[in-house]
């Protein structure tokens, strides 16, 4: 079971939109040094659907090669259709990923039984432990009743709760899920409380730019030190809010440029509002990743 800070890694790209594999390898090394528990490779929040299979396969392969066993690699296989997810799961298997993450398909408004069949097919076909995540466009699509049934399927080892419904999260904790099945927070703003209450980790966007602080918050929460976790989380909250208040992927990439982790390039990302830049700078200073 993966515990702690799981970085929902934004895929670095060139100006033409093609994946930047060299920068990916540099980011893998940085997150190893910062002590992150795992990296989700394939996009954030759901860009895996925008990558063709060759690009995704190469991302998985490069990440696994660069990690070299030093950090767990979770391959985001998307979830537009079962066929697409199965193809990406095969690529993840061949690349040697530690686990795969599949997103709930929403294009056809699936029924509960459709969702169960989708994830069961992936779990049965793949060789890697499967994490299931709600869709960013329809959080809480996967009800606690569906999660309960997923948790009892062979090969499915965790659920990423993507919504911000505190009652839904408490309901999940009260289910009595089988040993070896983990719950993960999918929204940074609520991660501290959920980890303190019993979740195993967070699939974190904020950890793209403040991995050490997210790791410290997770470690404190998992150790039962609520006060320390809350102290670190208080510094992280402005960054959590600044990222989600803007164009998320652009904001993360702009922040990575600002702290010197990726090159600016000829077409740097732009944010919707002028105030977004100053808000992000202040938030980055609060977590000590920017002077």
Question: How would you briefly describe this protein structure?
Answer:
The chain is an alpha/beta fold. The protein has one domain (4-212): Alpha-Beta Barrel (TIM Barrel), CATH 3.20.20.70. The chain contains eleven helices and eight strands.
Q: Can you describe this structure?
A:
With 291 residues, the protein is an alpha/beta fold. It has one domain (4-212): Aldolase class I (TIM Barrel). The chain has eleven helices and eight strands. The chain has helices at 21-34, 53-67, 82-95, 112-125, 144-150, 166-173, 188-197, 211-222, 226-244, 248-258, 274-286; strands spanning 4-8, 38-41, 72-78, 99-103, 130-133, 156-161, 182-185, 201-204. Strands 1-2-3-4-5-6-7-8 form an eight-stranded parallel β-barrel, surrounded by six helices. Helix 7 (188-197) links the parallel strand 7 (182-185) and strand 8. The radius of gyration is 18 Å and the shape is globular. The N and C termini lie far apart (36 Å). The mean pLDDT is 91.
Short key terms for the protein model shown above:
globular, 291 residues, 13% strand, alpha/beta, TIM Barrel, 8-stranded parallel beta barrel
> Structural class of the secondary elements?
alpha/beta
CATH architecture: Alpha-Beta Barrel
Shape: globular
State the helical fraction. Answer: 40-55%
Which runs of at least 5 residues are low in confidence (pLDDT < 50)? none
Kindly report the oligomeric state of this protein: single chain
Side-by-side strand order of the widest sheet: 1-2-3-4-5-6-7-8
CATH class descriptor: Alpha Beta
The number of helical runs is 11
Q: Measured on Cα atoms, how large is the radius of gyration?
A: 18 Å
What's the order of the H and E elements? Answer: EHEHEHEHEHEHEHEHHHH
* N-to-C span: 36 Å
Give the CATH H-level superfamily.
Aldolase class I
Mean pLDDT: 91
Largest β sheet strand count, sense and barrel closure: 8 strands, parallel, barrel
Quick one: how many beta strands? 8
CATH-assigned fold name: TIM Barrel
